[in-house]
Amino acid sequence: MSRALFFAPWLLLVPALGPSSEPSTARGWWGASLALHPRESARQGFAYPPDPAPLAGLGARHVLLAPTWVQADPRSSAIGPGEVRGGTLRRVMRRARALDLGVVLMPYLVLARAAPGEWRGRIRPRDRAAWWRSYRRFVRHHARLAAEERAELFAIGSELTSMSGPGEAGRWRSLAAEVRGIYDGPIAWVANHDALDRRAPFEAVDVIGVSAYFPLAEEPGASEGAMRRRASAHVRRLRALRAEVGKPLVLFELGYPSRRGGAVRPWDDASPAPADPETQRRAWAAMRGALEGEGALGPRGWLDGLFAWTWFGPGGVHDRHYTVRGKPAEAELRALLRAASR
Q: Among positive and negative, which fits the CA dihedral 111, 129, 160, 79?
């Protein structure tokens, strides 16, 4: 396949010394994530790096960039660079800021080899001390990038449930202190939706993050009303979490794959189920209704930000993945972002 297919002409337009305007100063952080997966872009045949321009038209005020680094397997004690080049990431950040989109940076780990049920939330390094040394280098690298490119929020970890128990609180405090010596913006920790009781990292950061893949149905085909009732229960739990911890709360990842059963297991990105954009639309509508109904959105709302996962891929009604691009759910996300900015 020709390399020209993946050339993004807008890279030539990015100013070398920074953006042409300042990012949005509106309250909170609102938008969508723009995943950076060059190999997957090549496999599906769409442009890489992705252009954040469509997010401005969607009503986003911010873009969440989520570069990945790699750990060989759940038992590995070392972390290495992923497939995203640092220069590419910088150019995408500058392009976003030139579009008046604030940038939020959330680097995270992926496993090169994992058995069924294994993922970053269940890693168990053979040498925890060595793993932490490696992880600190990984976070410091991205903290410098966040500082140099003026990111508005920086996450020091995402979904690392097995590494966020009470015994790790001192490690997270120490890491947060290191990051504050590099980056002077707010820092966050992102907990998985099923591990909100693992709060040791929350003590060290400024912003509570949640990866919000809460199930909205028990079986495929649930009605929008049934989904909304379940969504409302999850939203009330999030409001209670924010009150208990006493810090701003941002949903760093909220999304539903557009496939049958996507509201039953929203976190499952590997299901072979057929495309079902209507299920995705109902799930987004249910969550939007729950957030509005529970007072989360708007200038007096208690929620401090939300990112749709993810604006990545070709989209369209035959696409089975998370993006809402070209699908009925796109209108629901637009409405949510409008409600957040009212």
A: negative
Confirm if 91 and 49 have CB atoms less than 8 A apart: yes
Residue ranges of domains in the chain, CATH in brackets: 3-211 (3.20.20.80)
Structure tokens at 191: 């907990």
Token digits for 256? Answer: 């539903």
- Bridge partners, residue 32, by sequence: 63, 308
* pTM as predicted: 0.91
6: Cβ contacts below 8 Å, ≥ 6 apart: 38, 41, 42, 47, 48
User: Do the beta carbons of residue 67 and residue 85 sit within 8 Å?
Assistant: no
pLDDT digits (tens, 9 = 90+) for 234-286: 999 999 999 999 999 999 999 999 999 999 999 998 899 999 999 999 999 99
Residue 269, amino acid: D
Spatial strand order in the sheet of 68-71? 79-80, 68-71, 108-111
Please tell me the number of Cα atoms within 13 Å of 49 on its side-chain side: 27
